[in-house]
Structure formats: structure tokens, C-alpha cells
Amino acid sequence: MSAPGTSDYRRQEESITIAPLDRQLGDRPDEQLLTLNMGPHHPATHGVLRLLVTLEGEVVRSCKPIIGYVHTGIEKTAEDKAYWKAIPVVERMDYLAYYFNAMAFCGAVETLLGVEVPKRAQYLRVIHLELNRIMSHLVWLGTSALDLGAISMFWYCFREREKIVDLFEFSSGQRMHTRYFQVGGVFEDVPAGWAAKVSEFIEEMPRRADQYTAMLDHNEIVLQRLRNIGTVSEEDLLAFGVTGPLLRATGNPWDLRKAEPYSSYEDFEFKVPVGTVGDNYDRYKVRLAEIYESVKIIDQALAGLPEGPFITEDRKVALPPRHELSTSMEALIHHFKLVTEGFRVPPGEAYYPIEGPRGELGCFVRADGSAKPARVHMRDPSFVNLQALPLMVKDVYVADLIATLAMLDPLLGGIDR
Could you report the per-residue pLDDT of 392-409, keeping only the tens digit for each? Predict the structure, then answer.
């Protein structure tokens, strides 16, 4: 048998050539799309999140987030507890932003009570909030790099994260869910030597952040995975109610610390980092830049930390000092009433928004005059921001879906709460 000629080879090549995509879908559309579940138990979903993904080959054509697998009923539980006893419950929603959860709840209750928080307590709150913001961003950066295949970054970020939770343990006695924020101020003053340790940390943190930048900004794989991926316009994000670094990555500088200052944030000089494109790379750069700005705020708060009380002196709201219980009958009565019944809040309702690591975190409280809230509802940014995921990942590859979900920084504890 004679060897095949050039024309025979050409016919074989043409016989296996894949038809153009539009012709494939036109011929047999039902056979080209695959719908599958990603999660709810998947290391890249950053929690118990189920994504119903429709694929065309490796291209995502649609994505539907399905939540509710870890629902804890925290809001309803808080309504069955006295106001000050609800704080440990509220802290456990977004478990990477426990100081922010407590701040939003305490702020709403303080608004209803008309309690004035001492200046020292406001500054101590700011220091702990910004340390918590850095810690949250470090966990996000380490786990996001892990999703891209960079395991070393995970260990580097958690090295600094451990130093922050050590500071939390030093000031409150707990590493997580500290219950340090109290209605009217903070639970107790910071111990001797704590401020020096914070100063030591914020002196080191910018150098560590420089190292993260050097490792990631010049990594071609990271740049290919993030640039021009998951781009969404400012108008689309605003329509979804998205806030925080995701919105600021599009160039919108909305930040509640500047727009509606609380807890003396108006006393501090800092910038609001914004992006230009609104892609995954801008989301990464905005969060990284926020670490530097948080360090500046902490430095200013430490330098200007006022003297004075760390909690309101209204004994009907705050527990009296322990040393007074053995000498003052009035202090003993107030302590007994607060521990057993709690304080009563005048009827009314209040919404208290703050700038969390993932965007606007707000707490709505309705009081009916009793010692328990009639209604507690949290506006968690992870819940709101998750709406934008289907728009971000439409027509990208599966690998880009993983990277985009990581840049979204969702916390399922806050989403399901």
C-alpha cells in the first residue's frame, strides 16, 4: 500500500477540527453546557458556600450563590439576651471582624441611650478596630494567595496575624471574640506595656507589607491571574449596594470613616486608597494599601491617646469598679441589677453604620423599653457584596472564578449569621 499523500493528511486534519463555538451551541446547545456544584465544602469557597455553576467547557456562563448552610440565628439569639450580654453573641458573626461587630452593636445601643463615650475609650476602640482591619486583610491575603497556588504567602501573613492576636490577648485576655468593647466604652483600660508592644508592631508592619508587595507585584502568574479579570463598573456595584474595597477598587472613595466619622476618626489623617479599573488586581492593591493607612491611624491614636476614664461613668449602664463593691452599697446594687437584669433602653430605633474590612457594617436595634432588644438586624457587607459575584465571573474561566471569589473576601459567618 502506497504512503498517503499530502492531501490525505489534510483531509484527516480537517475531519477532527473543532467547529467554532457559536456553531457548536447552535447545533446542540443542551449538550455543551454542564451545571455542577462547587461547594458547599470546598477549600476555595472560604466557608460553607455553594455555587451552582454552569460551564461551557472551562468557561463560566452563569453562577448562582446558594447560602444558608451555616445559619446560626445570631440576631434572634441576641433578642433573647440583655443588651450587654448580647455582645459576645454578636461578635461571632463575621469571625474575622469581631471588634467591628461589637462596635456596630454598641454604637446603636449608645445612640438609643444617649450615652457619651469618653475620648480615651474612643481612641482605644480605634486602635483595636484598625488592628483588627489589618488582621482581617492579612487572613484574606494569605488565603487568596493560597487559592492562586502561592503557599509561602499564607505563612508570612499568618506570622503577622499571630502578633496582632497576641496584642488582643494582652489587652483583653482573649485572642478572638474578646468582648472588649462595652456599651459606653471598653471593658477595662489597657495594661502597662501594651502601647509599647503596639508601637513595636506598627513599626515592623510596613516593612512586612513591602515584602508582600515585592513577592506578588513582580510575580507574572499573579499578574496574569488578577489583571483585567472580574471587572465590574462602579455603577453596577452601586446598584447592588456593594461597599468597601470592592467599590473603592472602581475609583469611588466612599469610606464611612471619612464620610460619616465615628469614634473620633475625624481626629486622624489618612488616605482612602482607590483603584482605576475595578478588576481583581485593583481589589488586591486597595486592600494592601489599606494596611499602610491603618498603621498610620494606629500611630496617631497611640501618640494622642487621652487620659481619663475608659468607660462611661453612668453606673446604670456600666458596671461599677470592682474595688467599690466592698465599700459602697449603691455600687453593689447597681452591679447586682446590671448582672441579673441589665439596663433598660428607652423605646426607639437606631441604625449605626461603620466601615468594616469588607465594607459598610451596620447594626439596627429597636428598643421597646425593656432590658432586651426587641429587634436586632445586621447589615453585613459580605452578604450584600456576594450579589455581585455572578456579574464578576460571567464568561471567565473556572480558575478565574476561584481568584475572583478570593478577591471578593466573603465571610460565611457574616453572610448566614
Answer: 999 899 999 999 999 999
Nearest by Cα to 349 from 366, 363, 364? 366
Number of Cβ within a 10 Å radius of residue 269? 8
Radius of gyration (Cα) for the chain, nearest Å? 26
SS3 125: helix
Cell of 284: 488586591
d(CA 253, CA 245): 9
Burial status of residue 44 (CB atoms within 10 A of its CB: 0-12, 13-18, 19 or more): middle
Neighbours of 307 (CB within 10 A): 6
Contacts of 305 (CB under 8 A, 6+ apart): 120, 123, 124, 127, 195
Q: How do 34-38 and 375-379 pair as beta strands?
A: unpaired
Phi and psi based region of residue 181 (left: phi greater than 0; alpha: psi -120 to 50; beta: remaining): beta
Non-local CB neighbours of 376 within 8 Å, separated by 6+ positions: 75, 78, 79, 86, 90, 105, 363, 364, 365
Q: What is the pLDDT of residues 157-180, one digit of tens each?
A: 999 999 999 999 999 988 898 889
CA distance 166 to 161: 9
Question: H-helix or E-strand containing 365?
Answer: strand 359-367
Q: Which residues pair with 62 in a beta bridge?
A: 54
Q: What is the DSSP string of 216-270?
A: HHT-HHHHHHHTTSS---HHHHHHHT--THHHHTTT----HHHHS--TTGGGS--
Dist. CA 164–CA 185, nearest whole Å: 21
Question: What's the CA gap between 289 and 416, in Å, rounded?
Answer: 29
Residues of the chain below pLDDT 70: 1-31
Which cell numbers in the block locate residue 34? 454542564
The pTM (predicted TM-score) of the whole model is: 0.89
Residues in the chain: 417
Which pLDDT score is estimated for 374? 94
